[in-house]
Amino acid sequence: MGALLCRKVSNVVLWLAIVTLVSAGFASPALADQHNGRKYTPPPATATIKVTVVRSTNGKAIPNAAVVFHPMKGDRDEGALELKSDEDGKVTIDVIPIGDTVRLQVIADGWQTYGEDYKVETDSKEILVKMKRPGAQYSFYGDGHGTATNTTTPKGQSTSAKPSPQTPLPQ
User: How do the domains of the chain map onto residue ranges?
Assistant: First the structure.
């Protein structure tokens, strides 16, 4: 009789434990919102930015150009997101929040680096970047034509002072 009573009591205790755990599982999300839970803040609305990279001379696409997006907070750069243009010269990104400023930088082999700031005010923005070939290099130390003046002497020759014929050489 003692074993039968012990078994019934353990079944009742087990049943109460299961009911308590199940009811606590359903009640905990409501309690978390009321007491210690974090409040959910939805992410800001983002804009879809489409960039097309073309040649300035004929409008043909420049594939594999590095298109770098620098989200700005005031004058401070918040990081960089780099994408490569496809065979049509196009890049699409949709993570820049509406209302932010983004610094766009485009780098391609054989072309001048392009850079400009854009204010993202709507949910979509299309940007056409016309790349130019690099111009002549200017050097502050050169002759003004992109070439430096030659200040070196040929090998084997010296520019140091030579003794005059009147100065006797030490013996």
Answer: 46-131
Please tell me the distance from the alpha carbon of residue 114 to that of residue 103, in angstroms, as a whole number: 10
Cα separation of 167 and 159, whole Å?
A: 19
Q: Is residue 32 within 8 Å of 78, Cβ to Cβ?
A: no
**CA gap 158, 72 in Å, rounded:** 55
Quick: pLDDT tens for 115-163: 999 999 999 999 999 999 998 877 777 665 555 555 555 555 555 555 5
What fold is seen in the domain 46-131?
Answer: Immunoglobulin-like (2.60.40)
Q: What pTM value is reported for the model?
A: 0.58
Residue with tokens 């200017």: 138
